[in-house]
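Let's sit down with a protein and look at its sequence and fold side by side. Which protein we use is up to you, so please pick one and set it down. Label the sequence line and the structure token line clearly, so we can match residues to local backbone shapes. Go ahead whenever you are ready, and we will take it from there:

***
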Amino acid sequence: MSGFWPDDVQCGVAFTFDLDAETMWLERAEVIGESPVMLSEGAYGPKTGIPRILNLLERLGVDATFFLPGKIIENYTDVSREIVHAGHEIGYHSYLHKTAASVEEERQEIQQCKKIMKDLLGVVPRGYRAPGFEVLPGGLDVVAEEGFAYSTNFMDCDHPYVHRLNEGRSLVELPVDWIFDDSAHFFFTFHEPSRGPISTPARVLEMWKAEFDGIYDEGGCMILTIHPQISGRISRVRMLGELIQYMQSRPKVMIAPAGELASAVRIKCGQ
């Protein structure tokens, strides 16, 4: 068995959903002006994508992690509460999906969003995901000081590891990669910076299955980053269902919220 997991686990998988909604387009709007149609692309996530995704996860018995910007929790409080009530983990993802200008600004934003999460959802986030995975130099020390248990931002491994930080603090890292991010395959826009072309669900499914097979053989972890405003489309939700069932057909695969994977790593590492 892998050295990163309990003895009855071969590899770890987390389906993580970044519900950026309109914040994904607001930075573009600063340049081109707010467009109701452009912003509706983001609104598709909480309005249409989330119900489909929650239904899929319930049907297949999968608990996931949802990283929510603070502004989205404020704007879509009922939707955010539905995610919590369905038993999924809530993680930190900034306030407006923008990288902080400094570590002190990062600290203030973390504290602001933690209060929003506690007041509106009754949760305390354990997981930290930076907008666009852009972690500031020295930022992880602030993240650890603010009580987070894990980060899922770095792209240097196919297995989890532990960041050793100042004053004896540590964070579990659950590595990501653009290959596991649906925006790299499906996100299209005419607005600058433009993105495209659009891949087919079949092509992405083939790619993700192949990566999973290798990660399974090596005993690593696969952290998928999925945006409901992108992958809430019918064909893509169905593709996610096929992928989940493929993973579930293999023995000793731990499909769990990112926080549970991080806890398993800490126990295995004696943290």
Q: What stands out?
A: The longest strand covers residues 11-18.
